[in-house]
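Translate sequence into structure tokens.
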Amino acid sequence: MDVILIAPMEVSLRNTDNFRENNVENDHTKLSENVFNSMFLKQYRENIGIGALSAYLKKHGYKTKIYNANMENIENKELVSKVVKANPKVLGISLLYDLHVYNTYLLVKTLRNKGYNGHITLGGPFATCTFELLISSLSGVDTIIRGEGEITLLNLVEAVSYDRDWRDINGIVWKDNGTVRVNNPQKVIDDLSILPHVERDGLKHLKSKGIPINVASIYSSRGCKGFCTYCSAPIISRLTKKGTWRPRSPESIISEIEYLVLELGINYLYFCDDNFFGYGPESKNRLKELAQGIIEKKLNIRFHAEVRVDSRIDIDLLKLLRQAGLQDVLLGIESGSQTTLNRWKKGTTVDRNKKAIQLLHNLNFNVEPSMILVDPLTSSKEFIETVEFIKETNLLKTSFPLHIFNQLIVFPGTSIEKELLDCEVITPIKSVKSLEQWSSPEDLYVELQRLYCRYYKIRDDKVNVVWSVLSQYSNTLTLLENRVPEYLLFQRANIKNFPNKSKQIKEEYFTKVSHIKYWKNNIAALILDMLDSASDYLKYSTNKPSTAEFNKKIKEIVDNYHFKTVHTDFERFCKEVDAI
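Result follows.
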């Protein structure tokens, strides 16, 4: 085996109630427990980055193997065993975001302790932005690849395979006797259409286990021209001048879609582009050809795309894309406050955000609101403005109403981290432990939190109280919402088993079901009531901010929507249904 590429099992480092990202689920386990879940997933934990790298290496004659731990339910012990047995010349570990950090550290240390002596390299967006922390604290890692990985990884594999010096390869970071060396950026691939299609090992694994698959991730372009201060995309895109934004040809995309539809049975696509609409006339023509090709070939698909508001959305193009299958649009709105948008360098205005939402609603798109309700500097005025914006734009008219509840995450390496360090909202990292200095997984977890979780307190005390309460309720609501559909379907499928049950048991059962349905159908109204209560508290509360006082207000609201009944009885209800 020449190369093994791993997407590690995800583990949240943020063990607080303020982040929806804490709710990590394993695709394989979730889908194995109940096949109904596949009907509601809009995206598997595919890692198309390592899928693209594997395909590129194979095109150049190298033998590769992919392990996607979340999709295949592979624990570290099994991964280590597989790597040691195969003994690849190069092991690549992908860090898309901080959820992959914990198991990356464990894997590297365990592999080195078990005697694996191959070349270990890390890559991915998170690794690109945090390379200095990673290379300083992971002595078992030989290199980190910054930015687009195909050319750099191929050069690295060739050098290792033929025992040549790899230290002058562009695009890598490495340590030279304790000194971090950052080589020049690697050139990017100008024409993405020459690349082979992404390998689909994760989807094929699920299918081989008898799990119905209908969703696949795909990309039609790479890069972003935005400057959002909290995002890693601008950092990666600007490593080289040519890397800012590049599209694939419509023919290349349609060819991959045909394979996914005809060979794997996919009917829903999740486009992972930083900005699906891209920039300029060239991009509009490309999307027009893409939509026309999908329609002409009668590819029966629906798809999701992420869109920046400043990409000047074209109504005729939207109508054509709607006809081709575009259904869900994640719109990068982020805030309804102009001072907040300016602070984050969003490159748009509140008015432009409103017009984009209205246009998409008029064309019957399902708008997924990409929102960040608070950052460390959010004022009461800004929060109230965003609530009024949500109400005015009817933004909760969506299948994703709970997606508005996000707190800004300060990722290491981003522009906003430097800004918050300068104004002393967060503190600098003064020391970094090496791999050998932590003795247990628990010790490692605490150290990684210190390095990678840039916690902060919201400076406005009232906003801090409001968010601490809202985030806890929204997290619980999210967990319940994710589990409700399978059980409602399960109840329907097994209704024939109820005739022999007593009348009282059946009545209790259907009462609980009706409560869940009522709550599920009224989530948007519940959220609006919660936000209105938050605005009123920020406007009119004159006492010292009190978490207990505001929590009491929110609890009264949610209990009116059968939340108490659903929350209290849901686990018991699930067990009852499972036992049928």
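Note: The two ends are 47 Å apart (CA to CA).
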